[in-house]
Design goal:
By secondary structure, the protein is of the alpha+beta class. The chain has helices spanning 3-10, 60-82, 107-122, and strands at 28-31, 34-37, 88-99, 129-135, 144-152. The chain is globular, with a radius of gyration of 14 Å. The protein starts with a helix and ends with a strand.
Length: 153
């Protein structure tokens, strides 16, 4: 196991299998010393744990947890592209999408689930730039979607 795999296990988590793309794209692309992940949904064992809008069918607290699950799926995609998460030197950017009830304005709090987990895993190298965007609907009626840009050596 790698150092980062050990750290993830210490947190009581694991990196899942790479989620099968739902369209005509690949899970991650390497360009130079960056790996760009496709948007990842919070699949657990191939299924979404919930569907619907945050602030209506899905609580912000649950959505925050789902954003963290998206990160694990994105790390699986990155790992498949670069071989080992130990190669990651910096989390550069996180983009989070939240399927939001029209009255919901807490998107940053939801995507904190992704950001906080990256900090727990990578420490100082997990500090990143970020966007947290409310949208009308996401693929498969997922409540959240997260993509990452990671620098690696």
């Amino acid at each position: 196991m790698s150092k980062l795999d050990d750290r993830i296990a210490e947190l009581g988590l694991d990196i899942p299998e790479v989620a099968r793309p739902a369209g005509s794209y690949v899970p991650a692309v390497v360009s130079g010393n960056l790996v760009f992940t496709s948007g990842q949904l919070p699949f657990v064992a191939g299924a979404l744990p919930a569907t619907g809008k945050v602030g209506a069918a899905v609580s912000p607290e649950d959505a925050r947890d789902y954003a963290a699950t998206c990160v694990l799926n994105a790390l699986a995609a990155a790992k498949s592209a670069i071989g080992s998460l130990d190669r990651v030197t910096r989390v550069v950017k996180v983009v989070g999408f939240v399927a939001s009830d029209p009255s919901f304005t807490g998107q940053p709090g939801v995507i904190n689930g992704a950001s906080d987990l990256l900090g727990e895993i990578f420490g100082d190298a997990g500090v990143h730039a970020r966007s947290a965007v409310g949208v009308a609907v996401l693929p498969l009626d997922s409540p959240v979607e997260v993509e990452l840009i990671l620098e690696f050596a």
